[in-house]
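[agent] plan:
  1. take the single chain provided in the ticket
  2. run structure prediction with default settings
  3. attach structure tokens to the ticket
  4. add a short note for the reviewer (M.T.)
[agent] executing step 1
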Amino acid sequence: MRKKETEDQPGYEHVTHTFGPVYDQNSKILILGSMPSVKSREQQFYYGHPQNRFWKVISAVFAETEPKTIEDKRGLLLRNHAALWDVIASCDIIGSSDNSIKNVKENDMRVILNCADIDTIFLNGGKAYELFVKYCRQYVHEDKPRLVKLPSTSPANAAWSLDRLTKAWRDSLS
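[agent] step 2 finished; step 3 output follows
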């Protein structure tokens, strides 16, 4: 992630997404987050914060062992015909706070949608859904692919237990 503190917004940093999506021509679903957390930006891969439950949930949904390495995470997604990316290409943000996101530049979803036959886009949390509808709606035609808002796997979503999250994701992805 390239970042620099913005002069007109104290505490905000302008952050640019610097690692690409995970997908191939066999991908059938696309899972989108909003913007990678500070930990994910440091690791240069998705859901890198140890308290984020994404990899626990997704491995349970696909009935696989939880992946530990980036290579294993990519493999889990691709074996299960899942693509993974974020709505935002760059923005101003304070730390990892989705609620602080401003000055959004969206990712060009055609990168994936023109390559793979995606039938459903799953949005990881309300903010990802809100941002997709606001900035990326032009990439969806007549509800194809279908959009599904899922509860966030973020540790900030403490109201949802791991079991409850896994059930909601499993019910939606099945």
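[agent] step 4 note for reviewer: The longest helix spans residues 162-173.
[agent] ticket updated
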